[in-house]
Amino acid sequence: MARTSGSHSEITGPRLRAAAQALFARHGYAAVSMRRIAAEVGVQAGALYNYIPDKQGLLFELMKSHLDELLAAWQTLPKGVGARDALEAFTRFHVRFHLDRPDAVFIAYMELRNLDPANFRAIEALRRRYETVLEDILRQGAAEGAFDVADSKHAAFAVIAMLTGVTTWYRDEGRLSRAEVEDLYWSMVRKAVSA
Amino acid sequence: MARTSGSHSEITGPRLRAAAQALFARHGYAAVSMRRIAAEVGVQAGALYNYIPDKQGLLFELMKSHLDELLAAWQTLPKGVGARDALEAFTRFHVRFHLDRPDAVFIAYMELRNLDPANFRAIEALRRRYETVLEDILRQGAAEGAFDVADSKHAAFAVIAMLTGVTTWYRDEGRLSRAEVEDLYWSMVRKAVSA
DNA sequence: GTCTATAGCGAGATAGAC
DNA sequence: GTCTATCTCGCTATAGAC
Fold this sequence. Notes:
The structure is a homodimer.
Chain A: H1 9-27, H2 34-41, H3 55-75, H4 83-100, H5 102-110, H6 117-144, H7 152-164, H8 178-192
Helix pairs in contact in A: 1-2, 1-5, 3-5, 3-6, 4-6, 4-8, 6-7
The structure holds a DNA duplex.
């Protein structure tokens, strides 16, 4: 089957998402034009609309697929039984997952304001599900007496904020290895919730 | 001294900064137009340029004055002598200061990407000075044996990220008082760096 | 599936009257 | 100091040829 010259459906879609993710993370959704994305992909702006409904739909798909992947990755992770082991697993998973996807993380946290109301609600629900994972671990550990956490929900917010902050300073060329970064955060999280 | 009708230099300037701060925090710098700010102030867009050189200068002034105020407020705070007391003072100060200025905080963290290179360097230097305050407290405490912190710099990043996260969930109408929120964060910070 | 061309709109910033 | 009017530019999104 001959294919029309200039037809690249299998590669333009992924390239579009990759270019948009990189540009949105670097400059912000509102500051990046469709023309700029198209130039990065190597097509004209109009051609992008074969793959997305509009710019807003592109942002939503990037954020939704990131959070879907985050939840799926956690659920398939082999875990121990006790709350302490679960907390260590969560801490190391969160640091590792976020360091592997700095652009997607940046967008998921910074571009909530630019979502349409309906899209915002969908993304917030996914984020809330992830926060609840940690909240449940902390609550279980507190019930077992392994942790001293008066307010599981707000403690979960605090821990997630601390862990996610790693993306603002970590660089692969830096002094610390990823394993050392995991250890550093696990040490602080373990003590912060300890009895 | 008669004043020209329609002349309001003393109030338009502050109103411009207040309107810009609220709108930038809510919708993002790139998504807010000068016309929208002018409408909020109650003047035409052209009149704004009597007070600012351009939109970029407006953003820079908002961010710089916020960080100047942050550093000045810390420096005039009465403090104890030991590292433990200094850490508690810093924690409570940071939470209180940030809860009082949610819009300014939001802009200072989210709009770095939209600063011109020279402006970015100036803002980053101020932020770095503030991080160093906490870093020095942690280093001193580690030297005294009061804290167990292997890496003062990255521990400071982690603590600041955790504390600043309070602005993402705290609401005045919520269940917790500000004093309770301060206590919650101080409890976690104290343990996280404890020996 | 991609192209060129463009409709339709709103942006930042300036000029000059009052 | 603020107004109206406007310059110039870039934006999202679509239409229709290939």
